[in-house]
Amino acid sequence: MTNIQDLIQPDRGQDAIAIHLVNADGFDDFAKGLSAGQRASLKGQRFEGRGYQVGIVPDGDGFFAVGGVANPKELSSWCLAKLAEELPEGTYRLAGDAAETGAGPAMFGWLTAQYRFDRYHEEENPTGPRVLLTGQAGRIDAAVAEAKAEMLVRDLVNTPAEDMGPAALEAECEKLAKAHGGELSVTRGDTLEREYPMVHAVGRAATRHHAPRIMHLSWGDEKAPVLAVVGKGVCFDSGGLDVKPASGMRLMKKDMGGAAHAIALAGLIMNAGLKVRLHLLVPAVENAVSSNSFRPGDVLDSRKGLSVEIHNTDAEGRLILGDALTRASEEEPDLILDFATLTGAARVALGPDYAAMMARRDDTAQALTEAGKANDDEPWRLPLPEAYREYLKSDIADIANAHTNPFAGASVAGLFLDKFVGDDLDWVHFDTFAWRPNAKPGRTKGGAGVGLRAAWHMLKGRYGA
User: Tell me, what's the pLDDT at 428?
Assistant: First the structure.
């Protein structure tokens, strides 16, 4: 597709088609300023100013556009997204009150609405680019960077497992390191088994085609506060020997969605020059079925030294994260953020639009919630209850990887991870879906950033550029 950098341009008085934004309450007043023919045109399109409605109104030899929004003076991320999806190819600018306030946060949706995943199949007769002119030139680069991060998550998650295995995630980390002058180390093979035994155990059944590994990218001033970002990279999850049913396996190419979030967030951090010493850790495996798969009842070693009894091989993401979080803790970070497509329980509780968030510190959780609300990506905090730690007791090991009752699955998974995070560290866990089952304006069906923008805007506020 067209380079998204070109989809929003500074307004220097170029020729452009006007976009008027109205809501249902103000539509009648707006319509009074139109000709009878123009009012008839909108009536024929059943345009009434409701949210996400799009109208095209003849105007001399051309036309202008009308978009329905909740409030023309307070735009959200998605206010312009339907317009960007449905308008003809061309160059546009906001008119009326919206011209004075500027597109602001709606730049993001204008860009993401024009995302297409065309690696394997190109659209027939695709619509050309819709370009938006804005007087807020100083906000364009930030909006573009954020949209690129979202699109990277979508691309990585949408790519099938055969083309997005551990080696492909490694290549993405290598690309990041080269682009921003970071240092990348990759641990595999016997060294992985010795230093990250749970990562190796989960991934060893796929050694022949998609060998397990962990990527560790470091960047930034060594004297700056340490920020660790960790992402679950299960590139495909069959469930292991506790094999999933076919219906549960169909979307498991997206089980590396946490890694996609972590990689995209790291790119934003480095691109903006946040004042941190960044450590990005991505354990990458395929949870496959083979003669050397790890088994229910096995006891695994871990990097932290805790022994882990396997109650369910389909609770594998927390195992690889446990080793990665242990390594992140060794840097004594100011903050650890991890992202994982971890539990179905989080989706049952919150659906696809909210990332489940668990945090040790109330102030960090509050900052993330506020940043998410302000940027249309609100996470929802779930507890880490001490009372439920007993669910992870093992008769023969220090901890079990899963519990056998049906209660509080997301929180219990969070409690497992908590055992591998250093004492007293500020830590936040995002259990994100990374997928949109149905399209919405600006948000295509498929891979999706859920929690990404909340984390990014909180980090900007905490560490500055």
Answer: 98
Nearest-angstrom CA–CA distance, 387 and 153: 35
Q: Is the dihedral of CA 195, 201, 206, 210 positive or negative?
A: negative
The tens digit of pLDDT for each residue in 265-279 reads: 999 999 999 999 999
In this prediction, the residues of the chain whose per-residue pLDDT falls under 50 are 1
pTM of the model: 0.97
Q: Two tokens at 350?
A: 């919150």
| 214-245: pLDDT as tens digits | 999 999 999 999 999 999 999 999 999 999 99
Burial 79-94 (b: 16+ CB within 10 A, else e): bbbbbbbbbeeeebbb
pLDDT the model gives residue 2: 56
CB-based burial, 22-45: b 16+ in 10 Å, e otherwise? bbeebbeebbeebeeebbebbeee
Angle, CA of 160, 166 and 167, to the nearest 5°: 100
Q: Which residues carry out catalysis? A: 244, 318
State the pLDDT at residue 465: 64
